[in-house]
Amino acid sequence: MLGYTIKRLLQMVLVLWAVSVIVFLMMSFTGDPVFMVIPIDSTQAEIDQARRILGLDRSMLAQYGIFIGNLLQGDFGRSYVFGQPAMELILERLPATMEIVVLAVVIAAVVAIPLGVYAGANPGRASSRAIMSGSLLGISLPGFWVGMMLIFLFSVRWHLLPSSGRGDAVEVWGLRLSFLTVDGWRHLILPSVTLSLGTLAILLRITRAGMMEVTRQDYMKFARAKGVSRRGVLYGHGLRNALIPVVTIFGLQLGDLIAFATITETIFAWPGLGKLLIDSIYRADRPVIVVYLMLVALIFVVINFIVDIVYTLIDPRITVK
Amino acid sequence: MMSGFWTSEFFHNWRHNASAIAGSTLLVIFAVIVLAGPLLVAQDPYDVGSLNLLDSYKPPMWLDGGESAFPLGTDGQGRDVLASIFYGTRVSVLIGVSAMVLSCLIGTALGLLAGFYGGWLDSVIMRIADVQLSFPSMLIALFLMSAFGTGIDKVLIALTAVGWVVYARTVRGSTLSEVNKEYVQAARVAGLRDGKIIRRHILPNVLTPVIVVSTVQVGTFILIEASLSFLGVGVPITKPSLGLLIKNGFDVLFSGLWWNSVFPGLFIMALVFGINLVGDFLRDELNPRLK
Amino acid sequence: MICSRTGAWRLLLGSAAIALAAAGAVEAKDLKVGLTSDAVHFDPQAGEELSSNIMFYHVYDPLVRRDADLNFGPGLAESWELTDDTTWVFHLRPGVRFHDGSDFKASDVVFTIDRLKASLMANLGANIVSATAIDDLTVEIKTPFPYAALPNDLAAILILSEAHVKAVGDTELDSSPMGTGPYKLGEWIKEDHITLLANPDYYMGAPKIDTVTFRPITNPATRTAALLTGELDIVQDLAVRDVDRVKGEAGFTVVTRPSLLNIVLAMDMREKSPTIALDKNPMTDHRVREAIARAIDVDTISAVIMNGLSTPSEQFVPASHVGYLPGADFHAMYPFDVEAAEQLMADAGYADGFTMTLDATNNRYVNDAQIGQALASMLAKIDIDLQLNLMPKSNFFGYIRVPSDNSSFIMSGWDVPSGDAGSMYSVLYYTRDVKEGYGQVNRGSYSNPALDALIDQADSTPRIEERAGYLRDATRILLDDIPMIPVHYEQDIYAARDGVVFTPRTDKFLWAYDMDVAE
């Protein structure tokens, strides 16, 4: 277990390092950040002065060296555009993104797992087929289009829900949270539902597949033979085993959701990480992009680590190596 | 004899699977659109010289002000929406299929090498795959596109950079299980050349999962491309894909000009739905244990 | 009878409500504004874009105030005079206090200008050599050469409190701004909202609106929806396609105003042009430039792509500006006429046309990508095959930057909020690389010694009328030479719910101090 943890930690450092190198390399292709912060009719002398202020007057390699040096001291660099520490900008926006991501996961799980179990336990029924076709449709929809249609119907046509922003938020331990107010909930619903659709469909399918898999297992037949009721076997023995792959996918999906939140946040003007990323890309604001990607990588690695641990808890036969 | 039996069961199952039939029908329709689309519509939306700005924002033909020349209405440049969708479908499908082929070739090759030879080669390839898998593919593609700028070629590079990992992993897994089988070991001992072993014994066995992965990948690529274009970093506006058509339509959705975004959205949905229905069927048929 | 009785009854109810409100002492007024993007800074020397500029002018004041119609008048400076050709003396307004209660003094002005010269925004002070405090309420400013437009420049320099900046530090100024302006920063939740609170001690009198909340909503469709659902009172940059819809809704008003932003097409004048595969750049021929100008139908672009919400531009600067040539109209000189354009192309020896690339943005100007496509479609009719190279603004300005080695034909916007054509002409049309601070944005490498001479003369007189004369002559040369085609001025489009009292400003800076709300 300890060895495994150390190995995972080393892997994580490797991932983060690779990310920083790649982002630095790639960013040399993008626009020159200096033109994003100064007036376009600036003279060469003014441009040079701006480069000096932003630290862009050095070679790429030197800039990378300074970045790593600062990083080791816990300094992630400052945004070219905002002039603020990049990490601060990102942490400020993290709660908003986590809110829709977590709510999307909850919506997906609450809807998908019961439906998936049902469809997996009763594969022949027409209702199961309908559920499966519906889930395929969910995978086939472009999320941004669904978001547009939801705004069009719920906000513009029917005036039921607000179209954008976060609404009232309450500050708890320094975190601004909207799910504690009624207004906040009204703002949360559309973006979270939009974001959850893809995950919902995938979770549903995995649950069903897992369920169908376990019904074929020998121990299920034994249990049936011993006279345990079909229902008892399915939900007592089967469900637990069927959920193992679901846990893995859960972890992977969480990361995907953070990524797809970029689009959802753009549509709903949700003040989260994704919008910051898109804006930073448009502004060639490298420090913010680097830190964002490193953070997402970190979240991913940590989630995968947790998933492995949860695995061993659900299924004692599995040991992490 | 075995293969003949297998085929007939395959077709038997297909005939009795409503979703498979529906999916195949959708794909046939889209195949016609892709292959013969330009012949089915009067206008070439890419020929900017033929457009007339005065035709802009005409509604679908069944609404007031609509014209039969533009069955689904027109956009802000006077382009026929149906023609744009047909041409856009070609762009989307071209990108989806080409990216699939490219990532399949690269990923399968790397997966075979990693699985067959193992050792440092395996470690290097799989470490790169690990690093990449710690990112959602959408993010990687978005980041690459923001660095490259727009363009079909650049979208292809980004999607391939994202897509090869799935193939490499799948193929490496299947290769590993084949490599350890006795007949392969025997062939190796017998001094058969590596290339021949891979072609004769391993490739045929990894093909099934590759086919299943490929169908789903085409759909995934089409959706990722649509998202990139929606964010403004995908294909150029002169040759819009379905995703870019939706984005262009979004800007005027609230002005009541819904046909500019609703129709491309329905088409992309039907296209990917068809792909996924068929992919689902193939997966169940070819490898029931593959999830 | 019944009707009139109900009417009277309503009236009674109405006055009762007003009485009630009055009884509740002063009713606090608030305003919710939808912006296109969040502010980036509250430190006016850390960067500039529209949203930040809007915030700056709420919190800080300049020495010279620019009103909604680009008239310049006293701000923190009550008066000023020239003591010699390059020396200006500004007399500051006495009794002005910063938000923290401290007095505004000449040393704050000196500090502000010194800090500006070392900042990212040094460009704003390009024509200032030094600033010196004579006494607490007098500042002397020196320019490098006789420069008549200095007061206009000063309208863009916002005065900081020396003590405050030194106390909070340079980087913290963004989060705790403090000036003399009509509003103070209440709360800034990034990408969510900015709340400004009225400064009751403002030197021009307390603002009418007590609380102003700005919400950034980038997507135009979402912004429209937020106005219509009542989440906002007023929005900036209503999408041109949404104008008719909002006009059709009861209780909402659309307000438009021609902006200063002139969309222009710059043509390459070099012998060999980067994207044209010919030995000689056709656009060096005046006939080809004229043909291109005549092939572009600015009225249709305005009517269809801009939904009527743009004004074809007659010249390179608007009529309100120093240097505008009364009576001259580019599009009357070279009216849309495809046949004449074809003839000109044939005369120049390009009857079969040629291929070149247009560089343009896809997220900077109103409907920029659509305009690009329309241009391609129009030039196709005179056999110019126009390839489109559209990119986001983050790549664009670096890509087209002088020496512009990738570009032949560039669409960009230019606005001159200082109200003086000279600042535009000297950077856009002056021969490149001969004089520091001149020609640095001359992307087409246009060069005309007569024009350079006129700009030199304009920039060496401290008398504004003489300057205007030189610049008008320069405008005439530019209209004849066609180094650029002016397309249109965008219109600034706002939409508000009824009851919001609002007059748009030429410079687009929404200013709550000039606004009011009624129920």
Describe the 3D structure.
The complex is a heterotrimer of chains A (321), B (291) and C (519). Chain A is mainly alpha-helical. Chain A contains twelve helices and two strands. Chain A has a two-stranded antiparallel sheet with strand order 1-2. In chain A, a hairpin with a 2-residue loop joins strand 1 and strand 2. The longest helix of chain A is centred in the C-terminal third of the chain and has 39 residues, at 230-268. Chain A is globular. By secondary structure, chain B is mainly alpha-helical. Chain B has one domain (69-290): MetI-like fold, CATH 1.10.3720. Chain B has ten helices and no strands. Chain B has helices spanning 2-15, 18-40, 81-117, 119-133, 137-148, 152-179, 182-189, 194-230, 242-253, 259-286. In chain B, helix 5 (137-148) packs antiparallel against helix 6 (152-179). Chain B is elongated and about 75 Å long. In chain B, 52% of the residues are buried. Chain C is α+β, with helices and mostly antiparallel strands and 519 residues long. Chain C has three domains: 26-59 and 181-251 and 498-519, D-Maltodextrin-Binding Protein, domain 2 (3-Layer(aba) Sandwich); 61-162, Dipeptide-binding Protein, domain 1 (Alpha-Beta Complex); 259-491, Dipeptide-binding Protein, Domain 3 (Dipeptide-binding Protein, domain 3, Roll). Chain C contains 16 helices and 19 strands. In chain C, a hairpin with a 5-residue loop joins strand 2 and strand 3 (72-74). In chain C, helix 8 runs antiparallel to helix 11 and helix 15 runs antiparallel to helix 16 (464-481). The longest helix of chain C has 22 residues, at 2-23. Chain C is globular, with a radius of gyration of 25 Å. Mean pLDDT of chain C is 88; it is low at 1-25. Chains in contact: A-B, A-C, B-C. Chains A and C meet through helix 2, helix 3, helix 5, helix 7 and helix 10 of A and helix 6 and helix 13 of C.
